[in-house]
Amino acid sequence: MSSLASPFPQEQEFLAAFVQAIETQSFDRLILSQYKGELQDLEKMTWRVIHLQGEQVLQCLYRYKTQDVTKNYPLAQAETVVGVMLLASKQANLFSMTEELQLKKNKKKAMLTRSKTKTEVKKPLEQGHDRIKQRYVDQDASFLQHLGVTDAKAQVIPSMARKWKQINKFVEIFSGALSQIQADDHALRVVDFGSGKGYLTCALYDYMQKHGQTPNVTGVELNPKMVEFCQNVADQSGFNQLKFFQGDVRTYEPERLDVMIALHACDVATDFAIHTGIRLNAQMIMCAPCCHKELRPQLQAPKVLAPMLQFGIHAGQQAEMLTDTIRALLLKAYGYETKVFEFVALEHTSKNKMILATKRKNVTEPDPEVMEQIQALKEMYGIQKHSLELLLKGEWDQQDIGCKC
Ligand SMILES: C[S@@+](CC[C@H](N)C(=O)[O-])C[C@H]1O[C@@H](n2cnc3c(N)ncnc32)[C@H](O)[C@@H]1O
After folding, report:
1. Across-strand partners of 221?
2. What is the pLDDT of residue 194?
3. CATH 3.40.50.150 domain position(s) in the chain
4. Residue 141 C-alpha to ligand 1 middle, in angstroms?
């Protein structure tokens, strides 16, 4: 029996169940919420076991108000690190292959409920294999072979190692955000704007399907060859509700949208995609912007920043930061909780920023305080035009957004 400085036997029992699930390899995930400890703005923790460089480690995704932080711990420390955070959390949910436990507590009492696992939990990956195992995407999945990420023996093709890492990171972030949004009883309607070769579109379809969802996913892509390729991959993989549509993000108008994805959609294609998400009241908006071209020619250096922005590279970085800050603030103004963070570490790709927004409230008018902040930033840098702002105001002026990136 594990020992914990808790007045509640139920809490001891919960921690013991966690340790047992780890030891018997039946552990799926642990969620600690309503954290009341010393870490400021920490809202929730999601713990999983992942394989890293051939070893199993306990990974925690710490969800703060404005950012997510991931940390890995040796499995030998699992009981200690989880024990400390459990004491400081008012609710804990443990999911194993066989049962689900929920612990709720206040100052006076604790309540523990146990039930049989409802959703199918995949068997944990066996140790000792000679390939690196990833937690979020099953390396044996056939779509990976059809896409050329893995070979016939389900080994990652060396030149695709970075893409493989990016796919997993993306699904990890997606799964965290998915658990935050309100799932209606209908099939989740997802659109991936600028879906390219469909790596991420297929991965999130596969993930949702394996986690009890009935997803309805559309990839929108300009390039007809890519659309044809991706539709073949989807059909071969048995992804019946995954469709690829040849068209322009600027003119694609879905009827309903729960999750908006736009990863590396060129330049203002990202703004169109975000606008569609906001307009259709999407619960989740996830984008990794790319090739920011719109603000750079408009950028005027405020006097004090002129020595810094005289260097072209700095002016480019500033324009990029300003573009994405205005996007994030607009999302906030329209009722979204918005985070901006690193998507995949710099050594893997230079397109490494993610804006993740989850709907928190319905708004009839954008928050005036946030709109003032945007206006002040625009004035400071002499910005006349930001596509997302114009689209939201209904003042967009058509222009070419062709991109060769
Ligand atoms: C850099 S790729 C990203 C692909 C994919 N989202 C990913 O992250 O792997 C950008 C894709 O967006 C497509 N694209 C760019 N502008 C578009 C537009 N206006 N409408 C539809 N697709 C567009 C391009 O053809 C390209 O395939």
Report:
1. 246
2. 93
3. 142-393
4. 24
pLDDT at 132: 42
Check pocket membership of 68 for ligand 1, CB cut-off 6 A: no
- pLDDT score for 127: 38
Segments of the chain scoring below 50 in pLDDT: 123-134
Half-sphere exposure of 391 (CA within 13 A, CB side): 22
Q: Can you give the pLDDT at residue 347?
A: 54
Q: Is the CB of 191 under 6 A from ligand 1?
A: no
Is the beta carbon of 265 within 6 A of some atom in ligand 1? yes
Would you say the CB of residue 194 lies under 6 angstroms from ligand 1?
Answer: yes
* End-to-end Cα, the chain, rounded Å: 57
Which CATH number applies to 142-393? 3.40.50.150
Question: What is the distance in A from the centroid of ligand 1 to the CA of 264?
Answer: 6
Would you say the CB of residue 250 lies under 6 angstroms from ligand 1?
Answer: yes
Residue linked to tokens 């949208």: 257
Q: Which of 264, 268, 276, 391 maximizes ligand 1 atoms within 8 Å of its Cβ, making it the mutation to test the pocket? A: 264
Of all protein residues, whose CA lies closest to atom 1 belonging to ligand 1? 264
pLDDT value at residue 128 = 36
Atom of ligand 1 nearest to the CA of 163: 9
Per residue, the 3-state secondary structure of the chain, as one string, reads: CCCCCCCCHHHHHHHHHHHHHHHCCCEEEEEEEEECCCCCCEEEEEEEEEEECCEEEEEEEEEECCCEEEEEEEHHHHHHHHHHHHHCEEEEEEEECCEEEEEEECCCCEEEEEEECCCCCCCCCCCCCCCCCCCCCCCCCHHHHHCCCECCCCCECHHHHHHHHHHHHHHHHHHHHHCCCCCCCCCCEEEEECCCCCHHHHHHHHHHHHCCCCCEEEEEECCHHHHHHHHHHHHHCCCCCEEEEECCCCCCCCCCCCEEEEEEEECCHHHHHHHHHHHCCCCEEEEEEECCCCCHHHCCCCHHHHHHHCCHHHHHHHHHHHHHHHHHHHHHHCCEEEEEEECCCCCCCCCCEEEEEEECCCCCCCCHHHHHHHHHHHHHHCCCCCHHHHHHHCCCCCCCCCCCC
Q: Which residue is closest in CA terms to ligand 1's atom 26?
A: 196
Residues 263-288 pLDDT 10s: 988 778 899 999 999 999 999 999 99
